[in-house]
Specification:
There is one protein chain. With 588 residues, the protein is α/β, with parallel strands linked by helices. It has a domain at 11-77 and 96-228: Rossmann fold. The protein has helices at residues 36-47, 63-75, 79-86, 97-104, 122-132, 147-160, 171-175, 177-183, 196-206, 251-259, 294-298, 307-321, 337-349, 369-377, 392-399, 406-419, 436-453, 469-476, 493-499, 509-537, 539-555, 559-572, 575-582, and strands at residues 11-16, 19-22, 51-56, 115-118, 136-140, 165-169, 189-191, 218-222, 225-228, 276-279, 282-283, 303-304, 325-328, 355-362, 380-388, 422-429, 456-461. The strands form four sheets. It has a seven-stranded mixed beta sheet with strand order 3-1-5-6-7-8-9, with helices on both faces. A six-stranded parallel beta sheet has the order 10-13-14-15-16-17. α5 crosses α6 (147-160), α12 runs parallel beside α13 (337-349) and α17 runs parallel beside α20 (509-537). The model is unreliable at 88-95 and 488-492 (pLDDT under 50). It binds cobalamin (B12) and iron/sulfur cluster. Cobalamin binds next to α1, β5, β6, α7 and α9.
Length: 588
């Protein structure tokens, strides 16, 4: 490793790289949310007396350009396509395997074709990094889709500040550190798992205190060799990491993007709801679902902020930043029922007024009537339940989602309908040992749940993340469509999906796509029918929605067709929430 630049105290730049989004797959254009990981590290370092700057390339992009390009994409997408893409499913209506393969193998000169570069352009990024004069640059890499741009950012950072220490961390960097270190010889260190204490230890080392080999949970370079230090203990009491300091970022910038339709999560659009923030109240999950990669960077222990700390966090957002909506992104928010109930009661006691949802999904097995009741009282707009399969055998023997039973899921669905809470469910098809019959059971289950309990399905096609049990199984048994995880091209969103898709003697990726499209068509008809009935029964809401439609069409100039689609995703999927918003009825 090169000689360290002893500077007292060092200046730390925390950076989210730009990303290329491919327009034919989900998401339809860029997605933007608060950089929670960098915020957590930045706030901790600041608490320890270190000067930090957070540079989020995403909000440095040209919003109007992003908005315009987004509109272009919307125009070229048909409804089913949008419906599939909206909910993070795999691909496009015109899925052709041969086209995908040629996309993956495209020459690097083609790499910006059909893509949108979201974030500062490369030249500006280099200049901004140079101007920061940082001693340590911490780059976040959450998604495999963002790997190539992360590598390019490392190279640019090295050019801009040759003597800085460059560190990369985050869920994807933790899942494939060697790959990134090999592809980017300019990178000094990868931090694995939680980043707060690791970054602080790196800062101290940069000040000349201690040596790298004593910093737990990192991989660094020495004499052209990669040195792995012992694993860092998970932080179990998250309160010790301090409060998030939202002044390190400008929340208003994120709200503005949300207003223009570039957001992280699909949500119920009501007045001011764009003032939304994603946050977590805990990290990690003890379960072992075969497709899940959470344990790699967050561990199998459920680690929590205290309820008191979480309530202060929420209060800060609501009272000091005018936040109206919260996305709880925990890995397993409802795992500890007592803690969850205490949190909900605390929100009521402190009279915190905001709405919330759980777009990352919750585990159904301990959800009961008391919990649902409190959720509704505290402003829950919708819950997503991770059902994953409508076939109990698959749940028990392929996903190992024990102790989840479909019987219990049905109970939760029924209760939610009685209590008038909007619910969605995650389903996955295409596991390595699944048969067509198993897949059909899931599709049938999802349709029945929609018909009977109004559960909106979010169907995805399985893709195997390296580090998961499903990946090892599929790789061992030769069931991965492609074993080459990454291409060296940018815009790897699409590559990522296809490379990790599964194929076996019962199905090909193409067949799964066909089944998915057929499924989405049926669901649209059912939802459409229910929506018409709903509006006939609720003329006040019908009137409000027509007004919304024209306002969007006229003010945002996205045309009537796109306005209908927007209406669908941002309102019609929330029938109970709409009633609460537009019709005052104490029983609702
Ligand atoms: C919220 C969320 C999103 C949000 C945005 C998140 C954001 N901040 O930008 C949205 C909706 C946009 C999103 C989208 C997707 N997501 Co997502 N998302 C999450 C989720 C649920 C929570 C992330 C979070 O806020 N964590 C809380 C913060 C505090 O933790 P953190 O960011 O991990 O940071 C900590 C450490 O990782 C580390 N760290 C982070 N950065 C750095 C930097 C340095 C230098 C160091 C040392 C350490 C470090 O320190 C931090 C503090 O301890 C995670 C699940 C999870 N548990 O991570 C999935 C997750 C990150 N998403 C995932 C995926 C797959 C996706 C999608 C591909 C889904 C899809 N079907 O398309 C898209 C990709 C979008 C894109 N841009 O291309 C995967 C990534 C797996 C991988 N290896 O690629 C995860 C891990 C979930 C999973 N297991 O499937 N997602
Ligand atoms: S319950 Fe959710 S977070 Fe936990 S292992 Fe399963 S999918 Fe992952």
């Amino acid at each position: 490793m090169k000689k360290i630049n002893i500077s007292n105290p060092p200046k730390v730049l925390l950076l989210r790289p730009p990303q290329l989004f491919y327009y034919s797959t989900w998401p339809v254009g860029p997605r933007l949310s608060v950089p929670t990981g960098l915020l957590a590290i930045g706030s901790y370092l600041e608490m320890m007396g270190i000067k930090v700057e957070i540079y989020d390339s995403f909000i440095k992009s040209k919003r109007d350009k992003a908005k315009k390009e987004n509109k272009e994409v919307l125009k070229s997408s048909n409804f089913i396509n949008r419906w599939i893409k909206q909910f993070e499913s795999t691909s496009s209506n015109s899925f052709k395997l041969s086209e995908w393969v040629s996309w993956i193998n495209r020459p690097s000169t083609d790499m910006s074709k059909n893509t949108h570069h979201f974030g500062s352009d490369w030249k500006t990024l280099e200049k901004d990094i140079c101007d920061s004069k940082a001693d340590i640059i911490g780059i976040t890499n959450l998604f495999r889709e963002n790997t190539e741009e992360t590598i390019k950012t490392i190279k640019i950072a090295r050019k801009a500040l040759p003597n800085s220490v460059i560190v990369v961390g985050g869920p994807n960097a933790t899942a494939m550190p060697e790959y990134i270190l090999e592809r980017a010889p300019e990178l000094d260190i990868v931090g694995l798992g939680d980043g707060e204490k690791t970054m602080m230890a790196i800062v101290k080392w940069n000040q000349g205190k201690g040596s790298l080999k004593d910093i737990k949970g990192i991989i660094y370079r020495e004499d052209n060799k990669l040195i792995h230090t012992p694993a860092r203990e998970w932080v179990t009491q998250l309160d010790e990491l301090g409060n998030l300091n939202y002044n390190l970022i400008q929340l208003e910038n994120y709200f503005q993007y949300e207003r223009s339709g570039i957001m992280a999560r699909n949500k119920f659009e009501y007045n001011n709801a764009e003032k939304s923030v994603s946050l977590i109240t805990s990290r990690g999950c003890p379960y072992k679902c075969s497709f899940c990669s959470i344990h790699i960077h967050a561990g199998r222990k459920f680690r929590r902020y205290s309820v008191h700390h979480t309530l202060n966090h929420l209060e800060d957002l609501v009272n000091n930043y005018g936040v109206k909506h919260i996305h709880f992104e925990d890995d397993n928010l409802t795992l500890d029922k007592d803690r969850f109930m205490e949190l909900m009661n605390g929100i009521l006691k402190r009279n915190l007024k905001f709405t919330w949802d759980t777009p990352n999904g919750v585990f159904a097995n301990n959800i009961d009537k008391d919990m649902l009741n409190l959720m509704k009282k505290t402003g829950c707009i919708y819950l997503i339940i991770g059902v994953e399969s409508g076939d109990q055998w698959v749940l028990d023997n392929i996903i190992y989602k024990q102790p989840l039973t479909l019987e219990h899921v049905n109970r939760v669905f029924k209760l939610a309908k009685e209590l008038k809470i909007d619910i969605r469910a995650f389903y996955i098809i295409g596991f390595p040992r699944e048969t067509l019959q198993n897949i059909q059971s899931t599709l049938k289950y999802a349709i029945n749940a929609l018909r009977k309990y109004d559960i909106i399905p979010q169907l995805a096609i399985a893709r195997a993340d390296p580090g998961t049990d499903m990946y090892s199984e599929a790789k061992r048994d030769g069931k991965l469509f492609s074993t080459n995880i990454m291409s060296s091209n940018e815009g790897s969103h699409m590559d990522y999906f296809i490379r990790n898709m599964i194929t076996n003697e019962h199905f090909t990726p193409e067949l799964l796509e066909k089944l998915s499209i057929k499924f989405h068509r049926s669901t649209i008809f059912i939802i459409g029918y229910k929506t018409i009935l709903y509006h006939l029964k609720n003329p006040k809401i019908a009137y409000a929605n027509i007004k919304f439609l024209f306002r969007i069409a006229l003010i945002e100039k996205i045309g009537i067709y796109n306005s209908i689609i927007r209406l669908f995703f941002s309102r019609l999927f929330f029938p109970h929430a709409m009633k609460r918003e537009y019709i005052y009825d104490p029983k609702l």
